[in-house]
Amino acid sequence: MKKLLFYFLCFILFLSLYSVAYGVDNIIDTDGDGVSDHDEMYVYHTDANYYDTDGDGYNDKKEIVNGYSPRHANGRKLADVDSDNDGLNDKWELAIKTDLFNGDTDADSYPDGMEVKTSFNPLKNSGAKSTKLIKVDLKTQNLTYLFDGQILESFPISSGVSVLPTPTGNFTILAKVPAKNYGGTGYNYYYPDTKWNMHFTNLNGYRYYIHGAYWHNNFGQPMSHGCVNVAYENMERLYNWTSVGTEVKIN
Fold first, then answer.
1. 132 contacts 193 by C-beta, under 8 angstroms
2. Are residues 183 and 104 in the same domain?
């Protein structure tokens, strides 16, 4: 019996040392929820010993994969939670790989959210600028935006109909307008007080915007007069993240 106990302790010691050296802790999943103990403790800050941290009936992995917070019940999405109150929502923190529970990941005295908003990398205390990019795919009717090459969000949009196409090419955000009226006198439409408008080019006397749209819910299909329509639930975060000068690629 003593010999068996000795061998067992040796095995535990070996496993611990091997885990440190080769990252075996990344594949141990004590609660069987599909998320490794390492990621539960150091990435998601969930309970490694219980498969449903927030007790809402869905396991942690299922919630994460579907964009929901595994630590907050009542259907709260990762994009709507800011665990460390640093101005950077949990969805973006996970994408950029900052610490959900540390508002200043690189310890440079600037909150992660402020750094991302001003195009600095919150992982590097170097003062180097990071790139912001908005990509619009007219074929798939989809918009994706990236920070330093990491996708923050991707969702369906509505571009211009065939007789009023959205301009293609490489642009930059020229101006941000919190609220704007579209159409009116001389037009067969009027959309007042449209929120979150980002001007990206002029063509044939018209200004083109990426903007919120409240008058339809047919995103994924061309619907606009040439602008890029975005659902309000997606547009506010995009607008707040975007800076004047942010690159826009439309193809």
1. no
2. no
* Number of domain units in the chain: 2
Backbone angles phi, psi at 26, to 5 degrees: -75, -15
Tell me: pLDDT of 249 over 80. yes
Q: Which two tokens stand for residue 90?
A: 């949990």
Q: What is the CB-side half-sphere exposure of residue 241 using CA atoms within 13 A?
A: 24
pLDDT digits (tens, 9 = 90+) for 31-88: 999 999 999 999 999 999 999 999 999 999 999 999 999 999 999 999 999 999 999 9
Structure tokens at 212: 């919120």
Degrees to nearest 5, angle at CA 170 with 167 and 172: 100
Look up the domain containing 47 and give its range: 26-117
Longest dimension (CA), the chain: 93
Report the distance separating Cα 215 and Cα 201, nearest Å. Answer: 23
Terminal Cα-to-Cα distance of the chain (whole angstroms): 71
- Asked whether residue 81 is assigned to any structural domain, the reply reads yes
Residue 179 lies in a domain: yes
Q: Do both 100 and 161 map to the same domain?
A: no
Question: 77 and 68 in contact (C-beta within 8 Å)?
Answer: yes
Q: CA–CA separation, 153 vs 144, rounded Å?
A: 6
Helix or strand run (H / E) with residue 210 = strand 206-213
